[in-house]
Structure formats: C-alpha cells, structure tokens
C-alpha cells in the first residue's frame, strides 16, 4: 500500500500535463479514472470517480466537463496533502 506522500506524488505526476495545458482530454480522463479506482481505499476519491464515470459515459470529455474535472482533481490533491 502506498503512503499518502507516494499517492500525492504519483497523482501529481499524472496531472502535470493536464495542469500545464489546462485541458483534460478523454484519454487522460480514462487513465485518471483507472488510477483513482486502483488507489481508492475508502471513498476519498468517490467524487472524482463519479464525475469521470458520468462524463466518460458518452465517450468524450467536452471543455466544460474538462474544467469541472480539473477543479475536482485540485480538491483530490488538496485532500491528499491534508492527510499527510
């Protein structure tokens, strides 16, 4: 099991490109969804996973969904920092 610091670092690396271009595309969303599902131990990522499920249902992430997901990722990173 990964420590909170390791989770935070790995998620930071995964989201680096997303943050740089302020855009989350469909491929990135699928990768993140898999990561969150694999690393969730309780329900700490349920908000992000739920959004990813809903937004990926049609197979495409539009710019509004991208913005909402980027905000949710920020909250997930912040909660990992608090847990350290």
Please specify the SSE layout and strand pairing:
Blueprint: H1 4-21, H2 26-39, H3 46-56, H4 63-83
Model description:
There is one protein chain. The chain has helices spanning 4-21, 26-39, 46-56, 63-83. The protein is mainly alpha-helical and 84 residues long. The chain has one domain (4-83). The chain is globular and about 35 Å long. The mean pLDDT is 86.
What is the number of E strands? 0
The count of domains is 1
| Helix count, DSSP H or I runs of 4 or more residues | 4
* Helical proportion, percent range: over 70%
Low-confidence blocks of residues: none
State mean pLDDT (0 to 100 scale): 86
- Strand portion, in percent? under 5%
How large, in whole angstroms, is the Cα Rg?
A: 12 Å
- Which class of secondary structure composition applies to the elements? mainly alpha
Query: Which term fits the overall shape?
Result: globular
Please give a quick description of this structure.
By secondary structure, the protein is an all-alpha fold. It has helices at about 5-20, 25-40, 45-55, 65-84. It has four helices and no strands.
Attribute tags:
84 residues; 76% helix; mainly alpha; 4 helices
């Amino acid at each position: 099991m990964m420590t909170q610091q390791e989770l935070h670092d790995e998620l930071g690396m995964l989201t680096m490109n997303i943050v740089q271009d302020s855009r989350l595309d469909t491929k990135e969303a699928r990768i993140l969804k898999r990561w969150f599902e694999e690393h969730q131990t309780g329900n700490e990522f349920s908000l992000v996973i739920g959004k990813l499920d809903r937004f990926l249902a049609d197979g495409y992430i539009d710019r509004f969904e991208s913005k909402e997901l980027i905000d949710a990722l920020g909250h997930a990173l912040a909660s990992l920092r608090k847990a350290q």
